[in-house]
Design goal:
phosphoprotein, Response regulator, Arc Repressor Mutant, subunit A, 2 domains, Rossmann fold, alpha/beta, two-component regulatory system, globular, Sig_transdc_resp-reg_receiver, WH-like_DNA-bd_sf, 10 helices
């Protein structure tokens, strides 16, 4: 993961992000303040990571993510925004974002978030109950399922019925690589580490 597209309507923010990315040998191959242009640049430049704000013109960041994932983009997507309410975290995760960090933290989490995404993990810090101590909010099964996108939920139903990745790709008319990406993301969101755990989860929640 080397090539990055930055989508933010504040030039100063884009410059700050670019400087931080260059510190870890990542290359900014494109910048824009507009959501619709971000979609066009993604297909034109093929970035491996997109860093996107929510409040941007024409298409907001959530709509950008939804459109890109819906059209098969499988690269990393990190939301960097001033809107850090739990509602936005969950919404971004549900449409296919790989991570979510707040501008209120002065971009201090950027490197950690990128490292997590590069390693195949999601990065979604939850609310902090105290100023200096992170207290994760336990999620029940229903909460975790709500984090899944429509495509991820469809893949989950297929996996629960024992359908192989290659057969799911034919059924959904997408590549098996894309199915594997959805599978990886849904496993992360559901906090599952094996197919046995996935099977138990689907049986427990009548998802088969």
């Amino acid at each position: 993961m080397k090539k990055v597209l930055i989508v933010d309507d504040y030039p100063v923010t884009r410059m700050a992000i670019k400087i931080l990315l260059e510190q870890v040998q990542l290359t900014v191959i494109g910048e824009t303040e507009d959501g619709l242009e971000a979609v066009h640049l993604t297909w034109q430049l093929v970035p491996e990571l997109i860093i996107v704000d929510i409040d941007i013109p024409s298409l907001n960041g959530i709509e950008v993510i939804h459109r890109l994932r819906g059209n098969g983009y499988t690269g990393g997507i990190l939301v960097l925004t001033g809107k850090d309410d739990e509602h936005y975290v969950r919404r971004c995760a549900s449409v296919g974002a790989d991570g979510f960090i707040s501008k209120r933290n002065n971009l201090t989490e950027l490197h950690n978030a990128i490292s997590a995404i590069k390693g195949g993990y999601g990065y979604f810090p939850l609310k902090r109950a105290r100023r200096d101590m992170a207290l994760p909010i336990p999620l029940n099964d229903k909460d975790r399922i709500a984090l899944l996108s429509t495509k991820e939920l469809q893949v989950l139903h297929c996996l629960a019925r024992g359908i192989k990745v290659v057969d799911i790709s034919v059924r959904m008319k997408i590549s098996d690589k894309t199915v594997s990406t959805y599978k990886r993301r849904l496993m992360q969101k559901l906090e599952l580490e094996s197919m046995v755990e996935l099977y138990n989860f689907t049986q427990r929640n009548n998802l088969g």
